[in-house]
Amino acid sequence: xxxxxxxxxxxxxxxxxxxxxxxxxxxxxxxxxxxxxxxxxxxxxxxxxxxxxxxxxxxxxxxxxxxxxxxxxxxxxxxxxxxxxxxxxxxxxxxxxxxxxxxxxxxxxxxxxxxxxxxxxxxxxxxxxxxxxxxxxxxxxxxxxxxxxxxxxxxxxxxxxxxxxxxxxxxxxxxxxxxxxxxxxxxxxxxxxxxxxxxxxxxxxxxxxxxxxxxxxxxxxxxxxxxxxxxxxxxxxxxxxxxxxxxxxxxxxxxxxxxxxxxxxxxxxxxxxxxxxxxxxxxxxxxxxxxxxxxxxxxxxxxxxxx
Length: 307
Prior knowledge:
Elements: H1 6-18, H2 21-28, H3 32-46, E1 51-52, E2 59-60, H4 62-86, E3 92-99, H5 100-117, E4 121-128, H6 130-138, E5 144-148, E6 156-164, E7 166-171, E8 179-180, H7 182-185, E9 189-192, H8 198-208, E10 216-219, H9 223-232, E11 237-240, H10 245-249, E12 253-255, E13 257-258, E14 265-272, H11 278-294
Parallel strand pairs: 3-4, 3-5, 8-13, 9-10
Antiparallel strand pairs: 1-2, 5-14, 6-14, 7-11, 7-12
Helix pairs in contact: 1-2, 1-3, 1-4, 2-3, 5-11
């Protein structure tokens, strides 16, 4: 009996992640028949079908869903081993963009990991609103970026990291009830990032759900400063829950239960399509390890299937 190969596991994993053989073949830089044959060989080894082929879109079977997490763990372990061998070769500058809220929460630990594991790597950082960072990435002034709700683009690949919880945050000095609706906040000073940003859209959409607009809306281009203003009690705003977790635990601010709820937002790494450089892979590994270790992001919604 022949053994299961890494190539077979990679074929299965990327079909499961991307929802089609075609996309997996593009990701692996292989012909579609090659990827299909590797999947069939793996299914033969395991004695079970991993995808339901009776439907229009590829969907994982029960056995396929059970196997996905195990295969992900195996491939990540292989990648860690490979990275160790390449550490000495990974050197020089790499241009990384971060959405500011994510940077406030994670950047220090990401840099610690990079400095320890890749001492010759030289990160050059851009921290701004997600829209500003994404614009610089599209102009090829960055090698990769971590963004909130990034826009798909043909030349770029999105690697989901997880879902970020956000909500209305207010200083406890306001004495607000735990549950609030747009009519409860519409007359209070509100602060948001500039028009075009995710934060601004969340703010306007929330009030707009009841046909309202805030009577006082201050604009601030910095998420960190916005958070400082909210902590001080000068205004109320929507912020990532993780950013103010310590302040909430110490009773300085409260996370309001809002009706309607502020939806979770996806956090993704975004980079040019094609084989990633060792430096890019090293930074991505550091980002993923940080996010997982902090238990910051929730799981991405399950895919509904793609052809």
